[in-house]
Structures are given as C-alpha cells and as structure tokens.
Write a structure and sequence with these properties.
The complex is a heterodimer of chains A (312) and B (420). Chain A is an alpha/beta fold. Helices cover 35% and strands 19% of the residues of chain A. Chain B is rod-shaped, with a radius of gyration of 35 Å. Classes of the chains: A alpha/beta (312), B mainly alpha (420). Chain A: Pfam families: SBP_bac_3.
Chain lengths: 312, 420
C-alpha cells in the first residue's frame, strides 16, 4: 500500500512539474473598439424662402473686415480639395483647382492680397467662419435660412440641385427616388440629402462617408450602389468613374443655391464679394470658368438664376 | 562512523503457527517485524532521494525551459515591433510620395516595397514562432493586404489625375491607425508580458525548499534507524544527505545567479531593445503625421497633435547618443510648420519631401534599426548562453538523486545484513 501511495505521489509531482514547465500561452486578444455614434443634423427650425437668397448690396468701398484682410495681406479661404470640377487637388501639379477655386482666387485678387487655401470638410465650414479662423468659404455651400442665423452669405453664384448617381446598370432603369427601394445610397455624414430621398422612398438604405469622395470609394468597392448630392458634385464623381457610374436624366430633388460664406459680422466683406461676383458675370469670367470646369461634364447650359440683394 | 556490530534490541521471535491458528482473537503481539520495518524505511529513504532528484531536476529543467521561452518571446516581441516600425515607415514613404505630386521618387518607392516585404515576411515568421499570436497576425495580414491594395489603387488613380486617389490614400492611412494599431499594441503587450514572465522563471527558493524537505526526511530516517539499531549515523543515509545538500547548494546558487542575470537583462538589454523599437515606431509615425498634416492643407491639427505625442515618445525611449539626428529633424519639422502656417504650403512640402542622402531622419531611423537588432541579439544571446548550466545541472541532479537512492538502499541493506 505504502509503495503504491509513494508511487502515486511521485507521479502526481512529476505531472505537476511537467505541466509547469510546458509552454502554455494564452491567446493574444485585441480589445474591442469603443462604439462611436454619429449624430444626425438637427432639423431646421425655419423654412427657406426666396427672401433668404437676398444678400447685402454690392459695394467695393470696404470696411473693417476688408481693411483687416488687406492689413494681413492674406485672404484665408475654406475650400474643398476632393470635389472634382469645383475644388480638387491636381495630383500632377499639387494645385487645387476648379470652379469654386476660380471664384475664390478672383476675390483674393480683387482684394489685392494673397490667397491661403485651407482644405476643410463640410462640417467645418460654419465653426471656422464663426471663429474667424478663415475669412470666407467657397465650397459648394448652399444658402438657407438656418445658416443665415449663424453666418452671412454672398448673393447666389451658382444654382445646383440634388440628384442621384447610380451604377450604370441601375441608372439605365432609374425612374426617380422610388427606384431606390433596398438600394444602398451614400451621402456625407451630417447632411440631409438621404432624408430628401427617404421622404419619397422609405426603403432606400442609407450609408454615410466623410465626404462625397469617400462615398465614391465605397461605390468603387461595391459597398454602395448609389450616391446622392448636388449635380455639380456628382458630375465630378462620374468623371472619375465614367464607365461604371452615371447620373440619369432626372428632376432635381431640391434647389441648392450656392453662396460664398462669410462671418456674420463682416457685412462689408460680403458686399465686396458681391461686387466681385457681379463683375465676374459681367466680364465673362464666370461663364469662362463654367465652360472650363462644369460644362464638359454637365453638358448643359447653367441653370438660370438672378442674384438677390437688398438685405438690410 | 560508529557502526560496531550489536544485536538489534527490537528483534523478537516470529509467531508460532499454533498461535496463528488460535480460534479466539489474540492480543496484538508486542514484537516488531524488523525486516518489514527495514523494507519500509528503505522504500521511504529511496523515495525521498528519488523524489528529490526528480523534483529538483524538473524545477531546473523548467528554468532552462523558461530561459528558452524568454529568448523566443524576446525574439517575437522585437519581430512584432519591427513589423510596426516597417509598417509606419512604409506609410511615411507612401504619404510623402503622395505629397510630392507628379512622378514619385523611384528610390522611395523601392524602399516602400522593401518595407512591405519585411512586414509580410515578419508576419509569416511571427505566426510560425508563436501560435498564440496567429489569429491576430492573420487579421493583421489581411489589414496589410487591404492597405497595400488601397495604396496601389491611390497611386494608379493619382496617375490619372483624379482626386479620389487621395481618398484611397487617406482611407489606407486611417485604417492602419484605427485597426492596425490596436492589433499591434495587443501583440506587443502580450509578448512583453510573456517575455517578462518567462524571465522570472528561475526558482531558487523552490529548489531550497525541496532540498531542505529531502534533508529533513533523511534526517528523520537516520534518527529512526539510530533508535532501532543504536547507531548515530548510517553511512548510506549520510552519503545521500551529502549528495542532496551539495546538489541543493549548487542548484540554488545557479538559479539565483540566473535570476539576478535575468533581472539585469530586463532592465538592460531587453529594455534597450524594446525602447529603441518603440522610439523607431514613434519616429516613423511622426514622419507620416507630418505628411498627413500637409496633405490636409490647414486641417491637420489632429496630425500635428499626434506628431507631438510621437516626438515625446521618441525623446523618452531613443538612446541619447542618437538624439542629435532626431533634433536636426525636429528643427526641420518646426520650419515646415512655420512655412505651412505662414501660407507657404509649397515651401513646406518642398522641405518635407526633399530627398537628401544626409537626411537626419533617415540616419536616425537607420541607427535605431541597427540598435534594435543589436540589443535584441545581445539579449537573446544572454538568455541562451546560461541555459547549458540549468540543463546540465538538471540531468546531473536526476543522476545524483538516483545515486543518493542507491546510497540509502546500501546503508539500510547493511542493517538488514546485520539483522540476519
């Protein structure tokens, strides 16, 4: 008995130590990331009317804001660098160029200062203007009543409208937003574009990205089937993927009157910008810029619009 | 030794068969069965010696094994950190090439390819070396595949002049940081903990405890034998006790020396290897953040903040003898920031993308890469070099345990012969 007990003890000790010396590694585990929630844009508390398109009367005489900029010798302009045709970096020259950029550079030139282009996201536009980190925004920015409560706008300088870009096979049968049931539609986070579609077709599946170009990446990777946004923006996206993407003939879902964004207190600067825009239309440089950037892709004459002034 | 022959007092005559066949239970006999007692003592004594030999040998074998694992874990840790450094170096090169505009520098492109090749071969080697890392490494491999695909797509689209190329570039860099960094951090932490724990695998106190327990057992046995046979010391037991004592002293001293050496290694070469690798990773992340800041043209405040965090890590971890090169680079970075903030973006980009054979950043990176390699090799050599002692002592302990058991058997056998 004692021999058996001793042998048992010996074997358990040996087994224990063998287990101790054996390689038993716990598997490497990556901690799960914290979930981030995106916030939907707050619903507008006002309804945009024709009166909201009124800006301050054109005036080149300037004031405190114009003096401040001339003194600094630089006009800080918020622009896009990835919206082909409106404001995009040319990879071969590293320059940012497009229809919006032509307007921005002309304003700086008329002020007699150097332009400083700062690339910003759509969500940055109002906070950066309010903090005076930038002087103006020329970044396909729509004039509306809610924004007028936070900043000031120039008179309308381009009239765009919200449309839908689709995979070319879906574009061939597109009848309108009602064709988007169970179709994944992408729009930049923080915009209301998807809501405009869902008002008509509630089964459209919403996807978001940081920018419209981010949506195009998702489109090219097969994660979404359609992108919605301004016709000008969509034209730039189609130009980058013209075999697989198309904007079918359609009625614009919304009106998107573009204006130059300015800090609410810089009324003299708004008046100066309006004077420059007026001059661009009269001397043909606006048309020249449209013909260079937008006409080849949109293939139509620009939508007619009449700049409105007289804001007190 | 006092072993004069004397008749054992405990011996009594064996019971008669008649007594054994008695119908009524008889009271317990008052004699002691000496041969059986001697057998039991012999078994106990031999077991003590053998168990001592096995346990002590196993503890030493486990220490030998732990040092081997510490070397392997250190190797794996540095391998993971090299993956991390190479990945950020590749990203720094890709973002820098993107910034240049127009045709990219072929030398930098070649370097990018070499870094990616190094990342992929290190991932394969790491998965082979440590199965516990293989799931995370498989995910990392997929991520690197996605990263290189996005970078290739960004290059191809850039060459067509479309801005969506920039989106692929940003997507790749962001994904590397949001998904790749947590994986690499988890791998570095797991392997640091493993190496650290394996370096603490020397157990001098266990060896001491086993030795003392064996000596107490042999002492008790000698006392029992002494009482029964009126001898103070049994030669065989004394031999076994001396063997146990010597083996215990030598193995405890060996384990203690290795434990001290491992402690020095932990705060010395191992620490140097980990610190230099951390500095190299942070330096390359800083360089990539510098390019990303410029790519974002005025909206790269977060990248500048990240650059600051990286720079602090470099200052904290890089060997001071290489910091002069780093400071040349930080002065250049300050100039880049000044130019960018002063509305001279083109000047900032020209300075950031200048290809110079005497580039301080490239020199700093090369020095750190060599430092990591040297500290790693040195730490592993140190861990490997002392292992022969533990494994030799382990085998010797087992043999000496057997020898001690034979000593016990002979010592008690002598008493048995006296008795018979």
């Amino acid at each position: 008995m004692s021999r058996m007990r001793s042998r048992g003890l010996l074997m358990s000790a040996a087994a224990g130590l063998l287990a101790l010396s054996a390689c038993s590694y716990a598997e490497t585990v990556v901690p799960k990331p914290k979930e981030t929630t995106s916030t939907a844009p707050a619903a507008a508390t006002c309804k945009t009317t024709a009166a909201d398109l009124r800006s301050y009367d054109p005036n080149r005489s300037g004031g405190p804001a114009v003096s401040r900029i001339r003194k600094a010798g630089v006009l800080k302009i918020g622009v896009s660098a990835d919206t082909l045709l409106l404001g995009a970096r040319n990879p071969s020259t590293n320059k940012i160029e497009g229809f919006d950029i032509d307007i921005a550079l002309r304003i700086a030139s008329e002020l007699g200062v150097k332009p400083q282009l700062r690339v910003i996201n759509a969500a940055d536009r109002i906070p950066l203007l309010q903090s005076h980190a930038i002087d103006i925004v020329v970044r396909n920015m729509t004039i509306n009543c809610a924004r007028w409560e936070q900043i000031a706008f120039s008179a309308e300088y381009y009239h765009a409208g919200q449309k839908v870009m689709l995979r070319s096979d879906l574009a061939a049968t597109y009848q309108g937003p009602q064709s988007l049931a169970h179709v994944k539609v992408c729009a930049p986070a923080g915009t209301t574009s998807i809501d405009n579609i869902r008002k008509i077709e509630k089964d459209a599946e919403a996807e978001t990205a940081d920018t419209h170009t981010g949506c195009l990446v998702k489109f090219q990777q097969g994660q979404v089937d359609a992108i919605t946004g301004d016709d000008t923006v969509l034209a730039g996206l189609v130009a980058q993927d013209h075999i697989y993407a198309a904007v079918p003939e359609q009625k614009a879902l919304t009106d998107e009157p573009y204006g130059v964004g300015v800090n609410a207190g810089d009324k003299d600067l708004v008046a100066f910008v309006n004077a420059v825009l007026q001059q661009m239309r009269s001397d043909g440089s606006w048309q020249k810029s449209y013909d260079k950037w937008l006409r080849p892709s949109l293939k139509v004459d620009p939508a007619t619009f009449q700049p409105q002034y007289g804001r007190p | 030794m006092s072993q004069t022959a004397a008749a054992p007092q405990a011996a009594s005559p064996p019971p008669t068969p008649a007594a054994a066949l008695a119908p009524a239970p008889a009271p317990a006999p008052s004699y002691v069965d000496t041969p059986a007692l001697l057998n039991r003592w012999q078994l106990i004594g031999m077991s003590v010696a053998i168990v001592f030999g096995i346990l002590s040998a196993l503890v030493q074998f486990s220490s030998w094994n732990a040092d081997g694992r510490a070397a392997d874990d250190t190797d794996q840790l540095v391998r993971i950190q090299n993956i991390q450094s190479s990945l950020f170096r590749a990203d720094a090169l890709a973002t820098n090439a993107f910034l240049v505009g127009g045709l990219e520098n072929t030398e930098q492109r070649g370097e990018y390819n070499r870094e990616i090749k190094s990342v992929l071969s290190n991932i394969a080697a790491a998965a082979n070396a440590q199965p516990a890392d293989s799931h995370v490494l498989a995910d990392l491999n997929k991520l690197v595949d996605d990263y290189t695909t996005s970078i290739a797509q960004a290059r191809a689209i850039n060459r067509q002049g479309f801005p969506v190329g920039a989106a692929y570039q940003t997507l790749a860099s962001n994904k590397l940081r949001t998904e790749g960094v947590p994986m690499l951090t988890a791998l570095v932490k797991a392997n640091t903990d493993r190496a650290d724990s394996a370096m603490g695998g020397q157990h001098p106190f266990w060896l001491l405890f086993i030795g003392i327990a064996a000596l107490v057992g042999l002492f008790w046995l000698n006392r029992e034998l002494g009482r029964a046979f009126r001898r103070r010391i049994n030669k065989g037991l004394a031999f076994a006790a001396i063997v146990v004592l010597v083996v215990t002293l030598v193995s405890v001293a060996g384990a203690w020396i290795r434990a001290s050496a491992n402690d020095s290694l932990r705060s010395g070469k191992f620490h140097d290897a980990v610190a230099s690798a951390t500095a190299r990773t942070a330096a390359n992340d800083a360089k990539a953040n510098e390019s990303l800041r410029l790519i974002k043209r005025g909206s790269g405040a977060q990248n500048e903040a990240d650059w600051g965090k990286d720079a602090a890590l470099v200052e904290k971890n890089a060997p001071s003898r290489y910091l002069s090169d780093w400071h040349v680079y930080t002065a250049q970075h300050a100039q880049i920031v000044k130019l960018d903030d002063g509305n001279n973006w083109d000047g900032a980009v020209a300075l950031a993308t200048k290809v110079d054979k005497n580039d301080a950043f490239a020199k700093f990176d090369a020095h750190l890469a060599a430092e990591v390699d040297q500290a790693r090799t040195s730490a592993i050599d140190d861990l490997e070099s002392g292992r022969w002692l533990a494994v030799t002592l382990s085998a010797l302990t087992l043999l000496l345990g057997v020898a001690a058991a034979i000593g016990v058997a002979r010592g008690i056998g002598e008493r048995r012969r006296e008795f018979s």
